[in-house]
Each structure stands twice: as C-alpha cells, then as structure tokens.
Amino acid sequence: MAIGPGPRRGRSFLYLGDIGDNSKKRGQITVYRVAEPQVNPKDSSSTAQNPLDTETADVIRLKYPDGKYDAETLLIHPFTGDLYVITKVMGAPARVYKLRAPAPKSGVSTLSYVGELRFPNQFLGFITGGDISPDGRRVVICDYLGACELILPGKRGIAFDEIWKQSPLPVDIGGFPGVRRQGEAICYRADGLAILATSEGLPCPLIEVVRSNQYR
C-alpha cells in the first residue's frame, strides 16, 4: 500500500497493490486507487462486521515489459504521482519498474524498466517494502532483516529516476535478532524526519528511527 496524489487536485489517494506472484505465473498485476477516507469522530462506529464504505476505487491494470515477477513493494511519487514497483528477487538485483502518471483507468498499461538496486549486504535483498520521502528526495527499502536508503544528489533539476543509480546506505532499524523479526513494511513519517518499520506476525512492533540530523 502507498499514498500519493491522484486524479483530484488537493486530495490524497491510497494505492493498494495486488502485485504478489510467488509462482511467477500472472500475466498482469493490479493496483487499486481510492480517495483516502476523511475520518471524523462519528466514524468510530465502523467495525469489521459493519464497515463504512470508501469511494469507488479505480482499477489500474499493469504488466511487465519483459517477463513475470514477484513483487511486494509499491511506491508513489508524492509530487508527480508516478507509480513504481520493485521486484522481490533473491540472489540478484531487484528490478524497478515505473508507470508515469496519470494512470489510465481502463486497459492494461505496460510498465517501463527504469533501473535496479541491490542491498549493501549481499546476504540480504529479498525486498518486502519501501517508500518515497515526502520531499521526493529519498527512498527507503527493506527486506526481512534490514533496511537501506537511496538519496538523490543535491543538484537542482535532477530527475528523480537518477535515484536508482545511487549507492544504498544501510539504516539500522533493529533487525534480527532485535524486535523486528520478519520485516514486511517500512515508510517515512509524515514530516519525513523519521523512518517507521514493522514486522509480520504478533506481537507486531512499531519501530521509529529518527533521522532529523541527516535531513536538515
């Protein structure tokens, strides 16, 4: 899941990725886009048995240009709305694919290959989550055990996709044997000055790594 701009100016949208493919058999993948619900006090009555409805979701159908891949990482650029999928590969660099905004609401769109990345530690790299920072200058990605960050060079006017050419920098988020046992999700805090990470299973820790000294 990711959050970012969509077809209505000034409104945030949630992007829900049906992109997993462990057996690598799917001819296409799907991302659902729905306006972020604006929650108010009366919505506390919502339950699993009696949920409140969201607006109708857009269905974005996608395919890779060069094969079939498993993936768990969906990113949305906070300014352009461009959509990125990062494949989940063991023993080889992960591949990064892009759909330039605006995403069509019908038909099947072909993703574009834009780069690859490899974890700093060669024994890691089964990528399970990621996020683009609110300022659009950084990307954080995680696997089951650790995390790393890509930072766009400080040159003015540089294209965002240059970030995939940068060297990943390790980020300590309390991986094994710490509280984060099987990392499945990571994101930036809303102000962009910290990274939040969690694990699969119960109990489910929420880990915050403040990065303000590096970002100011």
Report on the architecture of this protein.
The longest helix has 4 residues, at 212-215. The strands form four sheets. This protein has a five-stranded mixed sheet with strand order 1-2-3-4-8, with no helix packed on it. The chain has a four-stranded antiparallel sheet with strand order 5-6-7-9, with no helix packed on it. The chain starts with a strand and ends with a helix. The protein contains one helix and 16 strands. The chain has 216 residues and is mainly beta. It is globular. 2% of the residues lie in helices and 39% in strands. The model has no long low-confidence stretch (mean pLDDT 88). The protein folds into two domains: 1-38 and 55-117; 121-216. Strand 14 and strand 15 (194-199) form a beta hairpin. The relative contact order is 0.12.
